[in-house]
Amino acid sequence: MNFIRGQDLSFRAGGDLPEASEAVEMLYEFAGMSAKDTYKLVVSTIVPRPIAWVTTQNSQGQLNAAPYSFFNAMSGQPPILVLGIGNRENGEPKDTLKNIQETGQFVINLVNQELASAMNVTATPFPYGINELEQAGLTTSPAQLVKPPKITESPVAFECELLQTVRVCEANTIVIGRALAMHIQDRYLLDAAKHYVNTPELKLIGRMHGAGWYTNTSELFQIERYTVESWEAAKDDQTGN
Ligand SMILES: Cc1cc2nc3c(=O)[nH]c(=O)nc-3n(C[C@H](O)[C@H](O)[C@H](O)COP(=O)(O)O)c2cc1C
């Protein structure tokens, strides 16, 4: 058995609703669960995930592009960007991983609302060597420090070199890359010298759950960070004292 239903606290004499902290819960213990089931639980709860639209080339220079949402930044300087790449269903490694291992280079392009459909085309499992970007009607322009090109239409692109791959099991490999340079279309810069980016205007999308759900990044809210002093001053208001 790999799931355990927690103590059911929803029934109370008198019909009280449970407090949020006492809500009924399910515990899934991952050891022994199938890859498909754990994947479902992870991708439907760790959301939204940013999307790395990765361009690579094989050693003959053939271009490849595919989206990856097991993706994030792990450090600011050096800028470390990480991808999680699974095998294809037939057990073969994906072209992105093959190419990164072959050449040590890749470009991570970011995806906005306008590019969502084109990005989706590039996730089609075309045979090795088919140029997904051509299929999606997209164009490329040269990177400066690495060989794979960037996607011209993408608002932001990071030129990356491979630092390390970590094979976590037969089917999944984590790619750790170091970003060497970042391209950003001028219209998204508020002040280039101060490195101010107009992030809301980028209209980047995030991957959600299930088959094909995404989110926009347009419903923003702001929370200011406290100092200990400002927290001390604010806490009575927060706790209603
Ligand atoms: C939005 C989105 C996110 C994806 N994220 C991942 C991921 O994180 N890891 C992965 O292995 N495949 C992911 N995929 C599937 C790959 O993009 C797909 O298998 C693709 O065909 C791989 O192409 P390649 O063989 O050219 O690298 C994702 C697909 C989509 C549409």
Give an account of the 3D structure.
The model is unreliable at 7-14 (pLDDT under 50). The chain has helices at 35-43, 95-103, 116-121, 132-135, 199-202, 228-239, and strands at residues 3-5, 26-28, 49-50, 52-57, 63-68, 71-75, 80-86, 105-110, 140-141, 150-151, 156-167, 172-184, 189-191, 196-197, 205-207, 214-216. The protein has 241 residues and is an alpha+beta fold. It has 2 domains: 1-33, no CATH class; 49-216, Electron Transport, Fmn-binding Protein, Chain A (Pnp Oxidase, Chain A). It has a 7-stranded antiparallel β-sheet, covered by helices on one side. It starts with a strand and ends with a helix. Strand 6 (71-75) and strand 7 form a beta hairpin. It binds flavin mononucleotide.
Question: What is the name of the CATH class of the largest domain?
Answer: Mainly Beta
Question: What's the helix count?
Answer: 6
Considering the protein shown, what is the CATH homologous superfamily of the largest domain? Electron Transport, Fmn-binding Protein, Chain A
The Cα radius of gyration reads: 22 Å
- The general outline is globular
Ligand species: flavin mononucleotide
Distance between the termini: 47 Å
Determine the structural class based on helices, strands and strand pairing: alpha+beta
Overall mean pLDDT stands at 91
| Oligomer kind | single chain
How many strand units? 16
Helical proportion, percent range: 10-25%
CATH architecture of the largest domain: Roll
Percent in strands = 25-35%
Model regions low in confidence, pLDDT < 50 over at least 5 residues: 7-14
**Largest sheet: number of strands, sense, barrel closure:** 7 strands, antiparallel
Q: What is the string of helix and strand elements?
A: EEHEEEEEHEHHEEEEEEHEEH
Strand order of the largest sheet: 5-4-8-11-12-7-6
